[in-house]
Amino acid sequence: MTLMNPVRKFFRGLFSAPFHLALVASFTLVAALTIGVGDWVISRTINDYLAESMNERVARDAHLARSIYNARQEQVAGLSYNLAKDAALAAGLQAGDEASRRVIGERLQTHLLAPGLDDDYCVVLLDRQWNIVAWANGIHSGIQATGAPAGNWGNLPIAREALQTSRSLSSTEIIPAELLAMVGLDEQARIELLETPRAAPEVFDPREGSGGLALVGVTPLETESGEVAGLALALHLFNNDFSLVDQIKDIAQIDTVTIFLGDLRVSTNVMTSEGQRAVGTRLAAEVGEVVLKGGQEYVGTAFVVNENYITRYEPLRNHAGEIIGILYVGARQSAFFRLLDEVGRSITLTAIVMVLFTFLLATPVTRVITNPLKNLREMAQVSKRVAQGETDVRLPVSYGGEVGQVAAEFNAMLDTLQATREQLVHSENLASLGQLAAGVAHELNNPLGTILLYAESAQRECAEDDPHCADLAVIVKETKRCKRIVADLLNFSRQHQVIAQPTDINALLQELIEMAPRRIKTVSIPIVTEFDPNLPIINSDTAQLRQVFLNIMTNAVEAMPQGGTLTVRTQTGPNQMITVEIEDTGCGIPRENLGKLFTPFFTTKPIGKGTGLGLAISYGIIKMHRGQINVKSQVGQGTTFIISLPVKLSAAEQPGAPQAASETGKVLIG
């Protein structure tokens, strides 16, 4: 009880008002529901993805297992082919005497010891009546004594068909126990059938437990005259032999692999609960219905021995196409479930942490919401200061709810008021600068003209070898440069109205492009045009736009001292606008200079090469046309000027009568 009192006091202080606790609880509940639904969706998505990935993995494992299985079958077929091509075997079989039979036995052993072959093969030599002449395997070997047949394999269908059709055959076959006994493999083939949960009541094949499932290759053995003297047969017995299933597991990194004779496991690396290989256990009945009886692949979860596996079963067929067994690959479902459980626990833990974090975060946030009166009082004080003329004061932006909205709108109003005041001051400064520039230009123009007149006269009268001739040339050159600067100042100071008239922008640009080689002497630049043939006629001051385009094109050429390409394109834009783009592949403009391009007197050219007024004048002309001018540039790749102009100007800007443009030949270089 003593411990509860401080806790109760703490929560009373933390949630000072009843609605404070309600808001915190509401926020936390909403967050918990949102996070819970999101985590459920994420968990299902991850589970579905993992399940699909596991199925894809098992499908890949089955493909690899089948490839390795087929490779072993080709090896068996190759062994029988090599036996059939052994001339010594054919000769010995045709001779039929005791010495020849011994040679045959030795040759069989030699083939079994060939490099690359395992010791789990069996080879058998049959005569034309399918009698065993000689046989050998990795454990035993036997040679028929003269007149004492070791046995007859005529009731093995693949051997009978190979001899009758005189062609090679290779497939998976069931070999009866009595035939295996003739070559010493009956004990290896014998398997005790074990009680298996969920297996079918009856075995699929009566030979299960005694017969052997084997890869068999049979090739007719011909004499030099081309007559069939017998058969060379090679086989690999799967019963109680685990070399292939373990090889598949190791190479393909597959959890479990099994080979079935009918529904009986004869070779497997699936383990029982006692840690033994599950040889002798049988297939689940529902899987047998699909694979053994239906002849289809089984993909999905299946009960294997004592637990569920994610599996893939493929039927094995003999040379006649009859289903005699199954090739199986699978992964333990328990491992998959453990992975899902780990993912689920991680998602649940993350959700709990996020809900707790929401609760902790909601507590101070709701306190801010429940204390608006102090904020309103501060707003009233700021309003009084603004009324006294302090327009640079601002309300804190930490307010929330409606109070925060009022504060934001109040600050926006003050920002607009201050920006308007600054624009007015800037306009007054520009007007004063223009008046000053006009006055200075008029005062300098006449003296400069006089100086130029006398300097040119003196230069003409000066002899070529006069040392003062070079000085007079410098005076003339610099005086002309001063007059250009004075002319630019006059252009900057004049505030022209737009004398609008119908203008074909494509024709105007084409005219300037045809003039370009005569007006730009620095370098020969190819000009590419991409004109919109459907570009509408616009209302504009043709002379002013000619000045803008020529100025930008001149700057573009000067930005390509090593050559390049100048592209001029037009296109129709939305909202009754057209767009003109002038693009060069020159040196580009640094990012820090892009914001200064249209500032009066800003230039990056060397002293004497530019006044910094060309782009400022162009900017003013475009703005008077109610248009926009923008720049995109990347250093080392080039610059693009994008000019947007309205098709029609407002009524106040329409002229009473067309007026000839002045200074049409003027080119300003910014």
Topology:
Layout: H1 4-14, H2 18-84, H3 87-95, H4 98-112, E1 122-127, E2 132-137, E3 141-143, H5 157-165, E4 169-175, H6 177-182, H7 186-189, E5 212-222, E6 228-237, H8 243-252, E7 256-261, E8 264-268, H9 285-293, E9 298-304, E10 307-317, E11 323-332, H10 333-369, H11 372-387, H12 401-461, H13 469-493, E12 501-503, H14 505-519, E13 527-530, E14 538-540, H15 542-558, E15 566-573, E16 577-584, H16 591-594, H17 614-624, E17 628-634, E18 638-646
Parallel strand pairs: 13-15
Antiparallel strand pairs: 1-2, 1-6, 2-3, 4-5, 5-6, 7-8, 7-11, 9-10, 10-11, 12-14, 15-16, 16-18, 17-18
CATH architecture of the domain at 56-336: 2-Layer Sandwich
Secondary structure: number of strands: 18
Report mean pLDDT, rounded to a whole number: 78
Main β sheet profile: 6 strands, antiparallel
How helix-rich are the residues, as a percent range? 40-55%
Nutshell version of this structure?
With 670 residues, this protein is α+β, with helices and mostly antiparallel strands. Helices cover 49% and strands 19% of the residues.
